[in-house]
Amino acid sequence: MYLKNLADTASVYELDAMQSSHITKVLRMKEGQEIELFNGSGLSYKARILSSTNKYTRVETLSDSMFVETLSERIIAVVPFIKKENLFFMTQKLTEIGVTDLMYYRPDKLDQSLLKKDLFKLNKKLEDIVIGGCKQSGINFLPSIKCFKDLETCLNDIPIQTSNNFVCFFDLDASERLAEADFSDANEYIFITGAESGFSDRERFNMEEKNIAVRSLGKNILRAETAPIAGITLFQSHIGNI
Question: Which of 37, 58, 66, 130 sits most deeply, having the most CB atoms within 10 A of its CB?
Fold first, then answer.
């Protein structure tokens, strides 16, 4: 269970309503049963449930703290805002396969149903989803979340032209596929995908201006939520994480 304020200084903790509801309604766990607490920054404990309702749970730690070292690779997914349900699905799966940073941008070819929406209000829901993804996959590092008004602003926030990173965007017209040679000397990997209707001319210009590599994921046309999952899964497979 996720507990943001988990530390070495206490033995009894109170879990919030979201975690308590998951314990009682989804896991159907009761007093006396054991769970694992994690703080999303590498720290975790084994703990016993002292009392639990749908809104409130008290737990007591049973073990010394365990700490997981920071991940050696930083994997950044630069993805567009898309329809909500598809966006949430994409976010959960990217978390489960080990993305460390999620950067959302408002694409030029935004779906018509989202034109009048304040997409930045989705931030809290996205945070809840990455917590759920970490619980599902046993990952003890919450991906960071940033939202941007467009792709250009997003790219300006990333130190792209450095010696230790590899940056690419996926495109159907690319002649070169993602390959192991792309990952030989880097420890930071940035993968950029477009909206359902693809990148605009302006977005392509922004990426070409920064000399960002272009790679293919094959001949199949993938949905906007599928492309980043497929690309990063392929990458993780290349480096032996999946």
Answer: 130
Residue 192: is its pLDDT beyond 80?
Answer: yes
Residue type, 131: I
Strand 74-80, strand 188-192: pairing: parallel
CA–CA distance, 182 with 194 (Å, rounded to integer): 20
- Determine the Cα–Cα distance for residues 180 and 183; give it in Å rounded to an integer: 6
pLDDT of residue 38: 87
Q: What is the mean pLDDT of the chain?
A: 89
Could you tell me the pTM of the whole model? 0.87
In the numeric block, the tokens 């896991």 are attached to: 27
Q: What are residue 75's DSSP bridge partners?
A: 189
- One-letter amino acid identity for 31? E
CATH of 74-239, picked from 3.40.1280.10, 3.40.30.10, 3.40.630.30, 3.40.50.720, is: 3.40.1280.10
Domain boundaries, the chain: 12-67, 74-239
The region, left, alpha or beta by phi > 0 then psi within -120 to 50, assigned to residue 111 is beta
Residue 30: strand pairing partners: none
Q: Are 13 and 47 in contact (CB under 8 A)?
A: yes
Residue 216 is classified by DSSP as: B
The whole-number pLDDT of residue 163 equals 67
Tokens of 99: 């993305």
SS percent in the chain: helix, strand, coil, step 5: 30, 25, 40
Residue 1 tokens, joined = 């269970």
Report how far residue 38's alpha carbon sits from residue 41's, in angstroms, rounded to the nearest whole number: 8
Contacts of 62 by beta carbon, 8 Å cutoff, 6+ apart: 34, 45, 46, 47, 48
Domain 12-67 - what CATH class? mainly beta
